[in-house]
Design brief:
Residues 1133-1300 form the CHAT domain. InterPro entries: CHAT_dom (IPR024983), TPR-like_helical_dom_sf (IPR011990). This is CHAT domain-containing protein. Keywords: Coiled coil, Repeat, TPR repeat. The chain is mainly alpha-helical and 1302 residues long.
Amino acid sequence: MIPDSNLEGDNESLFSASAQDEAIAAQLQYWPDSSSPESSPKSLPESSCGSSCGSSNGSSYESSCDSSSHSSDLYEVIAKHREALLLQPGEHPDSVSDSDFFTLVSALAEESNIDETVVLADLHEANMLQSLRQLGSALHSQFHHSDNLSDLNDAVLQYRKALSLVPTPHDERQGVLSHLAKILVCRFRQTDHRADIEEAISLYRDALELLPLEHHKRSSMLNALATALFVLFRESDQLPAVDEAILLFHKSLALSQSDRSTTLIILATCVQSRFDISGDRADLEEAIALNREALDLLPYGDPRQHCLLDTLSETFLAQFERSDQLSDLEEAILQLRQTLETYPAQPTLLDALAKAMKSRFDHTDQLADIDEAIVLHRESLSLLHPEDCNRLGSLSHLGFSLHRRFHRSNSVSDIDEALSMHQEALSLVPASHHERWDILNNIANSFGCRFHHTGQLLDLDQALSLRREALALQPPDHDILDRLAEDLMTRFRHLKQRTDADGAVSLYKEALDLLPSNDPRRANALNILATTLYKLFLESGELPTLNEAVSLLRESLTLPECDRPVIFTNLAVCLHSRYEFSGQPTDQAEAISLNREALDLLPQVDTRRSFSVDTLCKSLLRPTEHSGQLSDIDEAVSLQRKYLIQSHGLTNNEDRATLLVTLAKALHERYKGSARDQCEDLDEAIKFLREALTLVQDQPRLRFPALTVLADILCVRFHHSGEVVFLDEAISLPREVLDQLPPSHPDRPNALKSLSSCLIELYNHTHQLPTLDKSISLKREILDMMPPSHPVRSIELFNLARTLERRFFNSRQGEDLDEAIIICRETSQTLTPMHPDTCVVSHSLGNLLNQQFLRTKRSDDLHDAVDAFRNAVKCESAPISQRFFAAQRWADCADSGNHDSAIEAYIAAIGFLPRLAVGLDLQSRQQVLTSGTDGLARDATACAIRSGKFDLAVELLEEGRAVFWSQVLQLRNPLSELTLEAPELAQELKDISSALEQGSFRTKSRNMSDTPEIALAVEQESNKLRRLNEQWLAGLEAVRKLSGFEDFLRTKRLATLQMAAAALPMSGCAALVLRSTEKDVLHVPLPQFSLDTAKELVDKMQKLANTAHPQAHEDRSMRRLATAGDDEDIFRRVLATLWTSVVDPIFHKLDLEKSTIPPRLWWCPTGQFTSLPIHAAGIYDADGGESVSDFVISSYIPTLTTLLTPPPPPPPTLDSFKMLVVIQPTGQDPLPHTREELDKIKDHVKAECLTKYGTPEAPACIDKILLDIPAVSIVHLACHGQQNPNPLDSALILDDGRLTVA
């Protein structure tokens, strides 16, 4: 499956604070309160509340509240304010006496000429306003100590009451508005209630309107409103809000202010936040400029300097993080280096540059980059005091960089040091520290990484323990649950303890339940859980587990956040496995469709294409009932070749090695699935595997499986060639793997299987029984490692049965045969009839039962064997080659056992012959149809003759012998009748047949020295030919659905063949004679002619031919040279034997007599008869005699269908007639009298109709002759020839080389 997590995870960013949050939290506290005297800039803490604006009245008390450090003092202050609000004028304990108070009231009334009651009310209102504001401010401060939202709500309530006491244009209204707005901003950050921030913005706007343009507090008020707008933007991503905030900050900067640097910092944060949304590079450049200006304004040692450098460094990297373009990263690195020159020895900048170098390493894989990152982190650490809070982050980032370099270098010292850094970081935090959780997980990641490299289970146990400790520090967290579950699954794969797998599934389900239905992480969580269930299925073989995985992946596809290419691929993997388990073709078809869809969605440069291509190829390599089988394997090979070319330079060594191994497997599968006995696929697979091994020399996780695959293919290569060097290397490879694997390692069964297969080949070579015993022992060891429900256990049992069968043939111990039969029966019962493995299992069962029959002679055993063979042949999801060999074996067993199914088996086997050769070039087709199939038609015909089915005998003989050329003849079949009925279909077939005919005669083949591009081109040409053949077959089926065309281009039945009267001598058996005037086939036994007699006559004829030479240089006829023996007598005896034993019985049966006008007889010889001169048979002696020519005119045909093929139409006019003549009158070995032949041809053929080669003006060149042949009516060749055991390599010798038959 596609990996659902990595060892390092997301913890790498845990110690990198957000520039925006830190800027707001750390910088706003330096802004003076617009409501306080500039000499007293104290204000409420701004880390949660934003800016502060208030009134000058009562500010001293508010400041004292803010500076209070004890919650008990705040409680007392709040209580007194509440009590004061309940008192009437003059009742306050600290107030003056009543007489003095009323004297003051009278004086104020007199001075203002106002009624005393009005003055008294104004004073009471002022006292109420002051108390409400002081109470609200105290409650606000109390909230920061208690985190009790009710304090914040009460503060809002008190300020609302205060606001009701200061209507416009009250002098105190501006201060109350700004303080209420500040508290509402604080409450918004706690509750995310949109109404609070919107009201705060409105209140700040009202407060700003009350300040004159020249007011000294206007700058602070602009900052406060801008900050509130920025807070709204952070919650809503509304660009208008941040646009206005930026505009207000710029207006503020245009005014004089006490702390310009703080405004610059917050403005830079706003501008960069807008860049994060819009991606406008101008915003990023402005943010950098603003931060640089702020940095220049800060005095040396200012605590904000460190935070600003951190913010600036993150800003440098922001463009790269957005674009992922290396050019942006290079610019960020340059900016960081320049800043370091100005501010040297700054740990923040050193760490930022180190992280940038690590990012460049991730892009370029240049080891120097990660080396520099590590050096920079170490330098940063050396500058930090042991108690510096930033040391924690530097230690962690150094650990991450070492971890990353370990993946590149595989140096255990790197991962050991990374582990040490994380452990030191852990020592800096107490048990209650909020970052302890992250550090524990970082240590666990390092232990897990070291485990994957060394295989030491103690490291994995440590990782599990640390994750459990982290999980106990806080409520269940989705990420830590995932990591813990992943480690449990890793241990399960090594120890096979079901409790680990069940625990992992439970944790993944718990993590999934923590995510609400609308959480964007839910799609991936479903994928991870499904992946885990799939891995569990691979070990347990429990189909419900796999079904649950499929359901989860389908659910994931319904979510908008799902990564569709990943889910498509993973679902395809599950469906392919379910097909392997249950044999349902619909699962396999959907798997292939999903893989194709995944590839369509992934860009060409996406590294995930590697896994999708690999998965699709695995599905294509597994044939299905409705697949093209070999065409699917060809497609898999082409896909891998194409992706290897496309991904060159884009994939890392691991991915490329994986692709090479999969391509090697595909080539191996094609070799096994094809009837071609050629080793190009094997040699190329070996080459790819060796390349893969060089890419993963230091990675046992990938190296061991590749070694096992290489051993398997080398073993097959030995089987093909017999070269022991292949077998020796094949045996050494799995032994190397086994020597390095612990007993519980998951790769051990495959290595044992490979070694066992190699030992079987060694036994076949040496016939040493102990070798076979060792192979059986290894197979039993494999089975002992598998639970009874393991999905591939049945296949391993079957492999054991086949090995027991081999030992039975050696030792003849009935126990081995009995056990093998029992195993095969059990295995076959677990497979559906259309499961791809049904063919090979049933074939083996048939062989075993036939051996049982030969031992027991029980007819039931033979019947059961036939049933097994029949099941193998009917398995349409298996490759054609497997079904053919099963049918051939069935025919052998049934024929030798006199079973009545023999003819059925022969018919099935011969019916597969055309499909074996589909899509092959001419050389391969000839090899397929003569290797392993020679004599099949004759055996089938003989069986039919013994059964008295002479008509079927003729049909079988014709069908079996004509396969090689029948495809070409079909492609050349006239389509005149079809053109009248269905012209469009006829034209389509004509186009396809033309392309097929040209393609089938191609001679281009692969070469080990070919470039990947050339190899892909050859592969695609072969695939194109196979697709054309599929279109041809589909077209034939479409034609045969038309009325009157049901037998279009089908094999000729007897009634049709009888139109071609001929005699078919069957060597060693009989002759079959077809007569156009008779209905029945005439069977002529030849009791005096046997296979041995035929072979003896052929040997004599070959010896006589070897002594024949031209008697003179000018003589083109052949004469036997005088010899010391009786060659003449030998030749006469050969011809006499043919007459008496073969020809005379046939003529006697046909009642033929000598005639001066003899009829024509077409001879269609088979077997040894093809090398004997039947037409010259006779008794030749001085007293006369008789011969074939006295009775008939003899002609030869390769097949009966040849006589039924209409001759090409004559040229419509003489002008269209063309003739090609090729002579060889000169050269190293000139052919006599060919020039005279040409002169005689010139006497009869006009010059414009004649094309001549072999003359001084026109040499006989291959390319020119091939170009002219299609355009002429007659070709006359008068040149030397060269015979070859392979007929297709026989050739005419021309001036520039050999013109072969192929």
